[in-house]
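Lab notebook, design round three. We kept the backbone fixed and only want residue identities now. Task for the bench partner: fill in a sequence for the structure below.
Input structure tokens:
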């Protein structure tokens, strides 16, 4: 079992940050790849953020209402999926 990070991706070339409006999950939640985990707001649009992994949410790293920079870790997830880079370093 591995631990992966759900990060805030850049939705455009100009995007540098977003506000976390609402969590749709909580610590301990089981999620599937593609499930909506949070609502975020950029300077141009509000949108849903989905999980890139299937697994169990083990830590939420941001509070609702906080501003998060692109690339920051929003949550940590325990997953049985193989990491994209994991096999390179094994």
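Proposed sequence:
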């Amino acid at each position: 079992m591995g631990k992966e990070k759900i990060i805030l991706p850049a939705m455009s070339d100009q995007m540098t940050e977003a506000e976390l409006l609402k969590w749709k999950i909580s610590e301990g939640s089981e999620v599937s790849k593609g499930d909506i985990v949070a609502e975020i707001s950029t300077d141009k649009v509000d949108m849903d953020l989905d999980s890139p992994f299937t697994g169990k949410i083990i830590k939420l790293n941001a509070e609702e209402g906080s501003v998060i920079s692109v690339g920051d870790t929003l949550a940590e997830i325990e997953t049985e999926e193989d990491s994209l880079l994991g096999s390179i370093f094994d």
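Keep this in mind before ordering anything: Strands lie at 2-7, 17-23, 30-31, 36-41, 46-50, 55-60, 67-69, 73-79.
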